[in-house]
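Reproducibility note. Readers wishing to regenerate the assembly model reported in the main text can use the exact inputs given here. Chain order matters: entities are listed in the order in which they were concatenated for prediction.
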Amino acid sequence: MRRALAALLLLALPAAAPVGAEERRSGFADMTPATQAMQRDDAANPGMLWALEGEALWLAPVGRAAKACAACHGDAAASMRGVAARYPAMDDATGQAVDLAGRIALCQVRHQQADPAPRESQPALALAAYVGLQSRGLPITPAEDSRMATLRAAGEALYRERRGQLDLSCAQCHDDNAGRRLAGSVIPQGHPTGYPIYRLEWQAVGSLQRRLRGCMTGVRSEPYAYGAPEYIAIEAFLMGRAAGMAVETPAVRP
Amino acid sequence: MPSRRAVLAALPAIAVIRPAGATPETMQAAIREFLGRDRPIQKGRVTMDIPPLVENGNTVPLSVVVESPMTPADHVRRIAVFTSRNPLPSVIVAELGPRAGAARFATRIRLATTQHIMALAEMNDGSVWSDTAEIVVTLAACVES
Amino acid sequence: MARVLLQVPATARKGEVIEIRVLIQHPMETGFRVGTVGEVLPRDIIRRFACTWDGEPVFSATLHPAIAANPYLAFTARAEATGTLAFTWSGDNGFAQTETRRVTVTG
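Running the prediction on these inputs yields the following structure tokens for the assembly.
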């Protein structure tokens, strides 16, 4: 019975079809029912452990200012609602775009007078997961800002640039071949709807930048350093491309 | 320059292949150790629920249900799960009794490769019941190197 | 301390079989993986989990490296009388953690 079912599943591979904006689908739709169930159920989603840690960090006074995030922002459920759906965004003080993790780090330096949590560290991911969770279910709404439009265009150029020893662009997999299979995996359209995500391969929560690094090393190109402006530009483009799709943070992905 | 199609076709070969240490023989040895001695294993009363095809072997949902009234007179004492081709055959040994009220549990396991797994339930009368399943672990293409 | 997500009903009827789900943050390092410079990463796993109801064993388990990171367990308990459920995890490198939940039993 199980074997017959497996054979059926293998026959049911989706046919190749290039996808337009009107057919956008979250990577969630291509996951097995078991992995979908893991994301849907907060008591089973391991990403919720990071969000729980983020909640504790949100309430803890830190830095020379001995201030908690909550001291300025209050209840995250109200103040952070929709925030993650708008990032990356411009930081007016520096004139640079920052992603959500970058914004949290700036807050830690400026307002808590603390050392920022290093990128991809557990506290940084936990806070980003907790802030992201407050936007779960809300549509991605990129900022209407001419500076962000410039950044998105730069991100799109990077997305379409062939790179690495395999000479592949992001678009060649995630636009031209999305929905087809690469070994056992469906190639997703690459919408960053659920970051930071709990990835089964990582057995932990990680950021979009970690995922982008994985793609870059996958095509045998030199990845940018964490926090590089190129990643922010690619994220800005991808979030614009995913505008209107629902935030899933903390999503589960294989 | 290779065509894109050729490159895409070549990518799966890059995927990491993990070693498998256990064999059906070491699985049998682990089962003997669990039972304490050679005891008859009957098919039935145990049902495993596990996806037949998994996209990542790191986190595979597994549940085991055993038919039992779970009364002081008639209950499941232990449930154990074994794999045939993981580095180690043993996965979990659960102990339960009438206070559990039902003979079932769920967890998430690691499967190094395509293999079969076995669940055994030991009843308080000493009888041992079993279920087996065959799981296909697909090879992911885009793993972090 | 590791983060824990517990799902335990606050109330139950006498004789009711309740569902309990526990999730704990832990890498469950298998002892078979190799690190960045070729060294074998030492095993670091949770070995034992136990749940008791006012000290009476309900469900316990020995975990092996084949249990996925951030171990998840769902099991059941028969509600007899109002009391305290204790959940303990212990493992390599002195890992030890206990959580408790009160369940009120009616009827």
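We highlight two features of this model. The helical segments of chain B are 4-10, 24-35. The longest helix of chain B spans residues 24-35.
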